[in-house]
Amino acid sequence: MATRTRLDTLLLFFEVVNAGSINKASEKLGTPKSTLSRKLRQLEEAMGSVLLIRGPQKLALTDTGRMLYGHAVRIVAEIEDAGLKASELQQEMRGTLRVSLPLDFWMSWIGEAISEFALMHPDLQLEIHNQDRWVDVSAEPYDVAIHLGPIHNQQVPVKRLGAISRGYYAAPSYLDGRALPRRQSDLVDCDCIVHAYQRLDRIWNVARAEDGDAIEIPSRISVNSIGFAQLLALRGIGIALLPDLLCHAEASQGSLIRLALEEEPPALQVSATFIGRRHLPRKTRAFLDFMAAQLERLAIAGP
Fold first, then answer.
1. The domain containing residue 278 runs over which residues?
2. Does the predicted TM-score (pTM) go above 0.70?
3. β-bridge partners, 192
4. What is the chain's percent helix, strand, coil content, to nearest 5?
5. pLDDT of 5 over the 60 cut
6. What stretches of 99-165 show up as alpha helix (H) in DSSP?
7. Can you give the CATH number for the domain in which 116 is found?
8. How far apart are CA 148 and CA 163, in angstroms?
9. I need a surface site. Which of 148, 197, 203, 260 has the fewest CB within 10 A?
10. Which residues touch 198 (CB under 8 Å, ≥6 apart)?
11. One domain for residues 177 and 234
């Protein structure tokens, strides 16, 4: 039990035994049940023995579990003698933070942000997974999941982190010899590259000026990756709705042109879901606040 990770796991074991169930311990600590179960399995593997018997009403300790619990009681007593509580130790900026990021969260920017956060908290272990699907933190072992666009599960706590401005971009080779679109409705006559979530958000729906009826702008190509949409736009295939922060270099070099339409597209909302509103671990709160600050900085910088 010499390493920090083992000490964290031992304290979790202590809290689970005191609570009498993983569910109650999860609620008290603000830690997902799946995380507690995984940590307990790791502890049992390290001890080479089953520690808890999961009964229908309450957990029961095995002989090895009782021995380890007695060891944990003595450690917690020493911690409290030092003026701390086991729950406070859980709030320190160490341990592991598991984060799910959208696959389309633009690696250059998010890589810099994650690197800065890691340097700020050298004792914190980060597990970063990129996903091309919706991640439900109530069912999967993540402390935080960041999402682009609408939230699918309103039953978990949500923090709005910020918004990212967007624009319609095309390569000079595509625009050469064409009449530049002035309004969003002009895109009906263009080759459009549309991301699946943009279609779900009905961003490509516009009202025709002559009758006011909403129409859906057809897509020449549908994709599920913003990075791929940008690549197609760079190759002159058509017009794509892209985050401005993704296109800074291309726009400054002239390889992509941001169309000056009368209607600006809505910003892309960035949110995070997490577990444990009442007992939010300090590491989770620190990560959420950091990401919100980074997105605010980007918003101030502008396109």
1. 96-165+269-301
2. no
3. 239
4. 45, 20, 35
5. no
6. 107-120
7. 3.40.190.10
8. 9
9. 260
10. 204, 241
11. yes
